[in-house]
Every structure is written in structure tokens, then in C-alpha cells.
Amino acid sequence: MGRQWSPGTGWQPVELSDAELRVATLAARGHTNRQIAGKLFITVSTVEQHLTRVYRKLDVQRRTDLAAKLRLDATGPGDAEGGGNGTAQNRLRAV
């Protein structure tokens, strides 16, 4: 749950890529895959691929469970809507 096992180092927090985080945040806010694709200028297939990786990393079964697993630190102008360079700010924190 928000952590993964790594031989030699034990349990480590899971971190999503910036792209995975943008997609997951929009999905958790209730956007459809098509809406996410339009907002981020990517294909629906790419949205699906990102969500598949997010679900696996966070051990999430359903889209509705995403919001409970995500907590963003101060997003500011570089938030999940795609603007700014908030890469250092937008890190996943597993709850």
C-alpha cells in the first residue's frame, strides 16, 4: 500500500513519474480517460497505460480508490493540469 519491497533495502515508498501523477490526479478528480487525454494532449491509450502503471504501483483496484491513495504537496502553478514546472513539488505521498 504505497510502498514496494526491494531486496536489500526493504520497504520503500512508491513514487510516480510526473506523467503518471498528472494522469492519476485528473482521474482521481473524476475526469474520464478521454478528458484527461484532451487536457494533457496525449492519446487515450497513453492515459490507459499510465493508469495501469499507477494502479500497479499503488496497489489500487478501482479508479474510485485513487483519491484515497494520492495526496499532493503544494501543487501551485505546476499542478496536474499540465502547467508550470512543478516537478519537485508534485510528488506522491502514499497515505
Automatic annotation (TrEMBL):
Q: Name one Pfam family in it.
A: GerE
- Disordered: where is this region? 73-95
Keyword field contains Lipoprotein? no
Q: Which PROSITE patterns match?
A: HTH_LUXR_1, HTH_LUXR_2
Q: Does the keyword Ion transport apply?
A: no
Source domain of life is: Bacteria
The residues covered by the HTH luxR-type domain are 9-74
Matching entries from InterPro entries are given as: Sig_transdc_resp-reg_C-effctor (IPR016032), Tscrpt_reg_LuxR_C (IPR000792), WH-like_DNA-bd_sf (IPR036388)
SMART domains documented for this protein: HTH_LUXR
Sorted alphabetically, the keyword list is: DNA-binding, Transcription, Transcription regulation
Q: Which PANTHER family match?
A: DNA-BINDING TRANSCRIPTIONAL ACTIVATOR DEVR_DOSR
Q: What is this protein called?
A: HTH luxR-type domain-containing protein
- Organism, by scientific name, is Streptomyces varsoviensis
